[in-house]
Design brief:
588 residues, alpha+beta, Dna Ligase, domain 1, D-amino Acid Aminotransferase, Chain A, domain 1, Glucose Oxidase, domain 1, seven-stranded mixed beta barrel, six-stranded antiparallel sheet, 19 helices, 31% helix, globular
């Protein structure tokens, strides 16, 4: 039996995945990697996978677990819930032994010695098959935030161990070919970053929808990060171009203000650790990150991607979580794992979906993927309504949760009222290859159960839900069978939102976008109306402009939106992709 079940982050590296799981091993690797660059990873410790195995062996729980899971029909939702609950109880009871609880208490006291008495911690699962290049296990196990005191930390650790048998984790392992009994769980205990007083979010080192790999995609919200992952709010979004960043030309390529409707903070009432509060109007109307902070995060993300790519021996796009501490004002990296959806698309083939009909648009939001699907609407207000969902229907909800995944796998498409492109619904839709529209404000009100709709994500960043089932075409092209002409084929782009998607098609360059298209489609207001707002007499136009402008100096809005900065340059080349894709702006 192992004599010591605790490993501190500073002593852990990626090679320790079998002992502390993917999540914690990555935290240790990040801590060593970023320290030289001024980056920060919160302090903490891990309870090893051996602690989990020894606890189950000591109580003889293995055989009973095998009996519960060996003949399980995971499509039977009621049976799955019953067996999973019984399995979790076995693990919870087993991990309450004296030796393990004593070591948890001692380690927490050690963390108090470093960070202060009663330090708040996050208790998070870390599976030995987690955060791998071919399987993320994202959202399958439980996490607990703002946990304080020895007793509460021990309880959270036991519940975390037991979450290896959540309904969704069992289904995920079966669907991805993992043996339940060859995957063990470690638990990470990490000092909380006071993002409840600051901000948090997710970074991808590629464009999540097109797979375009030359950008860093940063999303952020006010408060703790659970809301962004669960899709309860619409986040701010930022893009940074990697090749120009590496050359020293560091600017935010584009930014989009999100609704940030709620913020998760430390709870003020007894019996709860966190609570959601409405975000004040002033906070909703400004970005949660400055440009300098976006660029700092982009620098960390590029450094992390380079490091993991070197270790893997191949390009490895990353999925990274960050948090800003509202007390010290600093940015922290709290998780990093290989991205497992967009980066795994077959590079030798692509599909083009095209609508062949037209109809009324019922709802719009952020497009996830590039596909089209039709089906009957099923509005789901909560988990209690999932049993009524029929395969092939369009799932419409406020947001989704990991517990819904067995049903989401059978949907034709997914539509949510809240969420951005890094939320749970978006991540699952990408992994399943389903079209999804997230952050569709009026979806729940305008769509009705039983009506037929068409969900289209084939027109760039805006996803649309059309009335009725519309005809569409799918063209599949094998690139290895496509002859390449001697003449270079270059694309003159009109809509800048299609830049990343177009760059992924076979071409020798994506060319200069015309300024009038940028103004018409991306900015949405004539520049002279911003230079001389006093000359705009229409009340309707004034209101529309007010909704667009979120900066103190309205005359700088055009330049910031189009050029990603406060300065207008005569020529600003913003993209130089691996296909030499160029999106530029020129004043002639």
């Amino acid at each position: 039996m192992n004599d010591h079940y605790v490993r501190w982050f500073e002593d852990v590296r990626l090679k320790d995945v079998p002992e502390v799981g993917g999540k914690t091993a990555s935290l240790g690797e990040l801590s060593a990697l970023l320290a030289a660059d001024g980056g920060r990873v919160p302090d903490g410790f891990a309870l090893t996978a051996e602690a989990y195995r020894d606890a189950l062996t000591a109580t003889g729980a293995w055989q009973e677990l095998r009996s519960l899971l060996s003949d399980l029909d995971h499509h039977n939702v009621a049976l799955l819930a019953e067996r999973a609950a019984a399995a979790r109880k076995l693990v919870y009871d087993a991990t309450g032994n004296n030796r393990l609880t004593r070591e948890i208490a001692n380690a927490y006291r050690g963390l108090e010695g470093k960070c202060g008495a009663g330090v708040a911690v996050a208790v998070r699962s870390s599976a030995t098959a987690e955060d791998l290049p071919n399987a993320s296990f994202a959202g399958q196990h439980e996490s607990f935030l703002n946990v304080r005191g020895e007793t509460a930390v021990i309880e959270a650790c036991r519940r975390c161990f037991a979450s290896i048998f959540t309904d969704r984790a069992i289904v995920y392992r079966i669907d991805n070919g993992f043996d339940h009994f060859k995957v063990a769980l470690s638990v990470g205990v990490m000092k909380m970053v006071r993002a409840d007083l600051g901000a948090s979010g997710v970074i991808f080192t590629l464009d999540t929808e097109s797979g375009f790999c030359d950008v860093v995609f940063v999303t952020g919200i006010w408060g703790l990060g659970e809301n962004i992952v669960q899709g309860k709010v619409d986040p701010d979004e930022f893009y940074v171009h990697k090749p120009t960043f590496r050359k020293g030309f560091r600017a935010v390529l584009s930014r989009a203000l999100g609704g940030k409707q709620m913020q998760l903070i430390y709870a003020s009432r007894r019996g709860a650790t966190t609570e959601n509060m409405p975000t004040p109007k002033a906070a909703r109307e400004c970005f949660c990150l400055t440009d300098a902070e976006v660029l700092e995060l982009a620098g960390y993300a590029i450094r992390i991607e380079d490091h993991y790519s070197k270790l893997a021996g191949r390009p490895t796009p990353m999925d990274i979580e960050w948090a800003k501490d509202g007390e010290d004002g600093r940015l922290y990296i709290v998780q990093a794992r290989p991205e497992t959806a967009a980066s795994r698309r077959a590079p030798n083939a692509f599909e083009i979906y095209t609508l062949k009909g037209a109809g009324p648009v019922l709802a719009t939001g952020r497009a996830v993927g590039e596909k089209i699907a039709s089906g009957k609407v099923r509005i789901v207000a909560g988990a209690h309504q999932l049993a009524a969902f029929q395969p092939g229907e369009v799932l419409v909800a406020e947001s989704t949760s990991p517990d819904w995944e067995p049903v989401m796998k059978t949907a034709a498409a997914i539509v949510t009222r809240r969420g951005g492109r890094t939320c749970h619904a978006a991540i699952v839709a990408r992994e399943l290859g389903l079209p999804a529209v997230v952050g569709a404000e009026d979806a729940v009100e305008k769509l009705a159960t039983g009506t037929s709709v068409t969900v289209s994500c084939a027109d760039g960043e805006i996803g649309k839900v059309y009335d009725r089932e519309l005809p569409f075409e799918v063209i599949r092209i094998a690139l290895d069978a496509l002859p390449r002409p001697r003449t270079q084929i270059m694309v003159n782009l009109g809509d800048p939102e299609l830049a990343y998607h177009t760059a992924m098609l076979p071409n020798d360059g994506v060319g200069l976008a015309r300024m009038e298209f940028i103004i018409n489609q991306h900015i949405g207001v004539h520049p002279m109306a911003l230079v001389h707002p006093e000359k705009v007499t229409s009340k309707k136009a004034q209101a529309a402009i007010a909704r667009l402008v979120h900066l103190p100096a309205t005359s700088r809005f055009l330049c910031r939106q189009a050029f990603g900065g406060d300065r207008y340059d005569r020529r600003c080349l913003l993209s130089e992709a691996r296909h030499r894709a160029v999106v530029g702006f020129q004043d002639q």
